[in-house]
Amino acid sequence: MRAAVTALAVAAAGVVPFALAAPHAFVEHVVLFPLGAAGTGSPAVSPLPGQLLAAHVPGGRALAVAALAATAVGMAAWLLARPPRTVVAAADRVAIGLGLAMCLMPATRFGYLVYPLVLAAWFRRDRLTGRTAPRTVKSVGAEGR
Question: CA 11 → CA 4, 51, 100, distances in Å?
Fold first, then answer.
């Protein structure tokens, strides 16, 4: 619970000032554009499921948004039912949720999938490079003892 509160506080500190400075622009860029409701399309159309639904199925944008909402509810239920026990497990859950969101947004870019991939790899970087973290930290001046 402390980790969730800390994560929300950090996210709020990074987001709230911009939302307060230009609320209309914030909503336009952060909410409406990914949902395909901003009035302008993305010049980088991608063949992801949300965009394909929105472009080729009658009522597809609503279906994509409903799938996105259902995925968010499912991810929240999964986190509540089985909270991650390690940092790697938490990063994996966030990467899965972010990856699903990127795939289901009606207006998204294929390149956005790099974010969940980086997140999944970042917390495994020591294992991937073969390096190990130091097990103990020596205090200053303890080298000669």
Answer: 10, 27, 20
Q: How far apart are CA 109 and CA 105, in angstroms?
A: 9
Residues 82-120: tens digit of each pLDDT: 988 888 898 899 999 999 998 998 887 788 889 899 988
* 108 CB burial (10 A radius; 0-12, 13-18, 19+): buried
Closest among 68, 66, 125, 64 to 97, alpha carbons compared:
68
pTM score: 0.69
Cα(83)–Cα(77) distance, integer angstroms: 10
Reduced to 3 states (helix: H, G, I; strand: E, B; else coil), residue 107 is coil
Rounded distance between C-alpha atoms, residue 57 and residue 59, angstroms: 6
